[in-house]
Amino acid sequence: MTLKRKLETKIDPMRDRIKTLVKKHGDKSISDVKIKQVLGGIRGVNCLICDTSNLDPYEGIRFRGYNIPELCKKLPKAPGGKQPLPEGLFYLLLIGELPSKNDVKEITEEWQQRSKLPDYLVKIMDSLPTDMHPMTQFSTGILALQKDSIFSKKYRKGISKYDLWDPMYEDIMDLLAKLPSIASFIYQKTFKNNKHIKPDPQLDWGGNFAHMMGVENPEYKELMRLYLVIHSDHEGGNVSAHTSKLVGSSLSDAYYSLSAGINGLAGPLHGLANQAVIRWILNVKEKLGGGVPTKEQLKKFLWDTLNGGRVVPGYGHAVLRKTDPRYIAQREFALEHLPNDEIFQIVSLLYEVTPDILKEHGKAKNPWPNVDAHSGCLQVHYGVTEYDFYTVLFGVSRAMGILTQLVWARAIGLPIERPNSVTTDWLLEQVK
Ligand code: HAX
């Protein structure tokens, strides 16, 4: 059975589940909204559904019930490799089952077939200035591809709302197939004299991405696979996933929705934090004339950052209340492959000193590192030193979560989102 047919068999039972929940329990209350939540970024209000992954503040992320160490064991690997293949994670996110090696191979092949960038897109991408931020180029490339949206064409012709998941599936497969090519196009054009590298039909999705970026070290291909798996999904409420879902709820297609989510990922409190971390570390190194700073020196720089009214990038989280397991996964990779790397040593020292400083500072609810505290140092080690590009890597991965969530939103017919807003006068009325 093809992946699309497998998906189809899952849709009716899920529609029944939703129908029953609304019919039998629709009036049951599951969240109380406090004024501090309305004024505090809607933190902690249960008001979205997302079945692809779930985030526990203390345990961290589970993708369809599996944590990262479990995924690293259970998902198929590249020949001779140890890291899970992102295609397998995509399969799991989409249909909630662990894939066989063959299931993964079919996705790799299908994405290879769909991966060619149309000429009009290459022209548009070529015309973008090289000093345009890579995330702006990435979002523009995704948006420009909207011209080819099957969803939008079918909608214009007239399609039953029960069938909308099907063209959405086609669009997300096209998009995921093309994202590594768009991203590596941006990388080559912006940083490497426009020297574009053709995909290798023997390679998997992540391996090919590394290859098209021009990094042929097999360890980097393994890193890329791990990276693409762990950044893919973080339940439904994070800025990038929620933005895409919101935009998609008006029946905008996958291109409009993903491009909007990528714009959210480009914020320094979200995905852009991965560049900010490396910039922060390199700045410290430069000011100290190179080498690995002492703990005391790092403490001083951390306090300077905090006293300057800035956040320590890579630390804190809106939901997590412990070290991010995505940080741990990357740390384990570094301990195995680059234990003596200078920047890794600084990242490790920061892990030793930052939580206590943030606790003493007394503001951040979570003093522990998140995913972005670690990812940049691994990139630098393998020669990808252009840190403005790092959030694009994140975006390619996050697209898997965002886009599978979008297919499901159309499959179960989630309505247009329209929460109420209230005025501050109204709030003051309520507390009189
Ligand atoms: N450094 C300094 N102050 C911090 C902080 C940090 N790393 N994390 C939180 N705080 C501050 C907040 O700015 C806030 O200050 P004010 O009361 O003055 O507004 C206070 O502590 C309470 O914030 P919080 O409730 O702990 O955190 P939020 O849920 O509001 O925000 C953030 C979560 C991730 C945005 C926040 O921790 C932060 O800015 N971290 C640094 C940037 C970063 O690493 N972002 C990436 C997060 C992971 C992610 O999405 N990756 O894509």
Could you name the key traits of this structure?
Citrate Synthase, domain 1, 432 residues, 2 strands, binds N-hydroxyamidocarboxymethyldethia coenzyme *A, single chain, two-stranded antiparallel sheet, Cytochrome p450-Terp, domain 2, mainly alpha
Tell me what you see in this structure.
The protein is mostly helical and about 425 residues long. About 60% of the residues lie in helices and about 0% in strands. It has two domains: about 1-10 and about 35-270 and about 390-430, Citrate Synthase, domain 1 (Orthogonal Bundle); about 275-380, Cytochrome P450-Terp, domain 2 (Cytochrome p450-Terp, domain 2). It contains 20 helices and two strands. The protein has a two-stranded antiparallel sheet. A hairpin with a 3-residue loop joins strand 1 and strand 2 (about 60-65). It is globular and about 65 Å long. Bound molecules: N-hydroxyamidocarboxymethyldethia coenzyme *A. The site of N-hydroxyamidocarboxymethyldethia coenzyme *A has 21 residues, from loops.
